[in-house]
TrEMBL record, chain A:
Pfam families: HODM_asu-like (PF11927). InterPro entries: HODM_asu-like. This is DUF3445 domain-containing protein. It comes from the Bacteria.
TrEMBL record, chain B:
SUPFAM superfamilies: 2Fe-2S ferredoxin-like (SSF54292), Ferredoxin reductase-like, C-terminal NADP-linked domain (SSF52343), Riboflavin synthase domain-like (SSF63380). Residues 4-109 form the FAD-binding FR-type domain. PANTHER family: PROTEIN YIIM. The lineage of its organism: Bacteria, Pseudomonadati, Pseudomonadota, Alphaproteobacteria, Hyphomicrobiales. It comes from the Bacteria. This is Ferredoxin--NADP(+) reductase. GO terms for molecular function: 2 iron, 2 sulfur cluster binding; oxidoreductase activity.
Length: 355, 315
């Protein structure tokens, strides 16, 4: 049985995006403890863990078709959301190979890849795509290989070139970002593009993370969860479009906070690429409304505790100052203060109705 | 590509190239395809002999697109730890072997305008996977292979058609490194693999001629995880565990059933830090401060090892 896609849901306008009960229960909740602080929280991306989204190299869920449509809309109005510098052609083919092979292996009912030497045949059933091409020859694809395949994948991607003991963000497909810009960052080194992050530089997080990633081995990808919050289920929260979504923060009231405010979690994965020796950085975005998150008792209490104790620098950096207190008081009202289990797992297998 | 554990393979061919050189070809056990290997990648080959196990790293000589077979070329060395003797004398085809996923510590530089490859003897092997890749990328390159006069023909055969970019220098017709490296265009990168003396000569010559440090690349299988074996004693669980030369301290603890904390397995997160009661750690992590390193009272088990023959840990 395949995934039941929801092809018509939207991430703009009427915001018809929502999670099924199954999608709520498999949500990658990011808080293993009641407090949050930056750390080098990377671990091997193996096909197991406390959350089902870890079970595949690239997770595909019920939002797949709708997210690919949303990406196409963003690119139509702003083609520079996908850019790759000229020396990254080998990394482009590496990315195409990695994503096609992974999807075809992990979801054979939806994707297939057959190869006869350099003659490849790719079938993407959910998007109704059937493409024969010559691997290594960009003229046989309708777009360059990186853009071609990342238009058929959920989440943003960047490709890092490794040279001079550093990583450079020399390409990307960035249409569902949490307020950062590829157009601004392209070509930057690791510490340059992480420049705006508060506190973490001072405790050496980026020095250690860079050393770790420079040694990332092929076949042994790593992952981490990152998070922020977004008003409305809007994928494209880019600096370029701030006038479209920034004012949404002012629309949150105690009456609508549970429907308006969404926890936004990024499953970040890093893969060493073979031909280019680059690194593919996947930033897979998951959104859950507060009213759905509340149906998991442990997550409801823990999110409230994390937000209540979040350092002020992080409240500011994550852009949640306008409505943080509303969320905290709503969640605190149903928190009995009892200890919660460590880890991110939901501790329940079914969901009550919404509050 | 997620590779969990080792790649199971079998030897599907042994080709004699010269009296001391053999090519060993491997195919995935049970069919299928190997992971795409980087140009210049190496694999760790695990061979099980009758009374011991050999683990040696060899450069792949196959291209990234060749995934039905991996191949290595091995010289039967007089002064080897036995791995090359075992390969040459015992492996005839059909044997099961374990391979690591191909690792790349010798990549082709993405921004180089020109590539100069200089190898000596069997150090040619990583360039056998470079050359077809550079050709298909239409890159500007030249290769210089230094070898004994007697082996020049063998290496010419391995490299295929000489096309003006491939130069095999036997001992009677050797150009000086200066001749090769002088007057190269800006943006030229030089790569070298072979005996230490050759690699040092190439690096020194390149530096003297003004190559920037980031344009000089030397093959090394690197300080991956291995080192001298040592013994670790655990005060709390009262266990004594041997850490092998190709095993990390963390892997040895896990193999012995000790619940050791860990997360990133790469010396960056600090989760695996354990107090040292006695012995001298060899720190390889990126977490500890200089003062903590000097003090030597804490160790990152996922990457660090011992300078002393044994370590005592509070675990």
């Amino acid at each position: 049985m395949g995934i039941q896609f929801k092809p018509t849901e939207t991430f703009r306008g009427d915001f018809s995006y929502s999670n099924s009960d199954e999608a709520v229960l498999r949500f990658p909740f990011p808080f293993a403890e009641d407090k949050y602080m930056y750390s080098v929280n990377m671990e091997p991306h193996v096909r197991k863990g406390p959350c089902p989204v870890f079970e595949h190299a690239f997770d595909v869920d019920e939002h797949y078709i709708a997210e690919c449509h949303e990406r196409a809309l963003v690119l139509e109005s702003d083609p520079k959301r996908c850019q790759v510098l000229p020396h990254m052609m080998a990394a482009q083919w590496d990315t195409l190979e990695l994503i096609m092979e992974s999807l075809a292996t992990d979801y054979p009912e939806h994707f297939s890849l057959t190869r006869d030497g350099d003659n490849w045949h790719w079938i993407n059933r959910p998007l109704n795509t059937d493409q024969r091409f010559v691997f290594g020859d960009p003229s046989t694809l309708p777009r360059e290989p990186f853009e071609y395949i990342t238009r058929q994948a959920q989440g943003d991607f960047t490709i890092q070139d490794q040279r001079d003991h550093n990583l450079y963000v020399d390409g990307g497909m960035v249409t569902c970002q949490a307020d950062w810009s590829l157009e601004f960052d392209i070509g930057m080194s690791f510490h340059e593009w992480h420049g705006p992050v508060p506190l973490a530089h001072d405790i050496g997080v980026f020095d250690r993370a860079l050393q770790y990633l420079l040694r990332l081995q092929y076949g042994q990808p790593v992952r981490r969860l990152n998070w922020t919050m977004t008003v409305n289920p809007r994928m494209d929260t880019s600096p370029e479009n701030y006038p479209d979504w920034g004012p949404d923060k002012l629309t949150v009231t105690p009456e609508n906070v549970d429907r308006k405010v969404h926890l936004r979690v990024e499953l970040q994965t890093l893969f060493r690429l073979p031909r280019s020796n680059g690194i593919l950085f996947g930033i897979r975005c998951y959104l859950i409304s507060l009213q759905d998150l509340e149906r998991v008792t442990k997550w409801s209490k823990r999110l409230g505790r994390v937000l209540a104790t979040l350092p002020p620098e992080l409240v500011e950096y994550k852009g949640i100052a306008r409505y943080r207190d509303m969320v905290v008081s709503r969640l605190a009202a149903v928190d009995d203060g009892a200890p919660l289990s460590l880890g991110i797992q939901p501790d329940q297998t079914s969901l009550p109705p919404r509050r | 590509m997620i590779v969990e554990g080792k790649l199971s393979a079998r030897v599907v061919g042994v080709d004699t190239i010269s009296p001391t050189l053999k090519r060993f070809r491997f195919a995935p056990q049970g069919g299928g395809q190997f992971p795409t290997a980087a140009p210049g990648a190496h694999i760790l080959v695990t061979l099980r002999g009758p009374d011991r196990v050999w683990k040696n790293s060899y450069s792949l000589v196959t291209t990234p697109e060749q995934r039905d077979q991996y191949a290595i070329i091995v010289r039967r060395a007089d002064a080897s730890r036995g791995g090359s003797h075992f390969l040459h004398d015992v492996i005839t085809g059909g044997e099961a072997v374990e391979l690591s996923a191909p690792a790349s510590l010798f990549p082709i530089a993405s921004l180089a305008r020109k590539h100069i490859l200089i190898s000596g003897g069997i150090g040619l092997t990583p360039f056998l996977s470079y050359v077809p890749v550079l050709r298909s990328r239409k890159a500007t390159f030249e290769l210089h292979q230094f070898c004994s006069e007697g082996e020049a023909g063998v290496f010419r055969d391995l490299l295929g058609n000489e096309d003006g970019r491939i130069h095999v220098h036997g001992s009677t017709s050797r150009p000086a490194l200066d001749q090769i490296l002088a007057d190269q265009p800006l943006g030229t990168h030089v790569y070298t693999c072979g005996p230490d003396r050759l690699m040092e000569g190439v690096a020194q010559t390149a530096r003297r001629l003004g190559f920037p440090e980031n344009a000089i690349h030397q093959e090394s299988f690197g300080a991956a995880t291995g080192g001298q074996p040592f013994v670790v004693r655990l005060t709390r669980s009262r266990k004594t565990i041997e850490v092998g030369e190709t095993q990390t301290l963390l892997e040895a603890l896990e193999a012995a059933g000790v619940e050791a904390p860990c997360l990133c397995r790469g010396g960056a997160c600090g989760v695996c830090l354990v107090p040292v009661v006695d012995g001298e750690p060899e720190h390889r992590d990126h977490v500890l401060s200089d003062a903590e390193r000097a003090e030597g009272r804490i160790i990152a088990t996922c990457v660090s090892r011992a300078k002393s023959a044994s370590l005592v840990l509070d675990l």
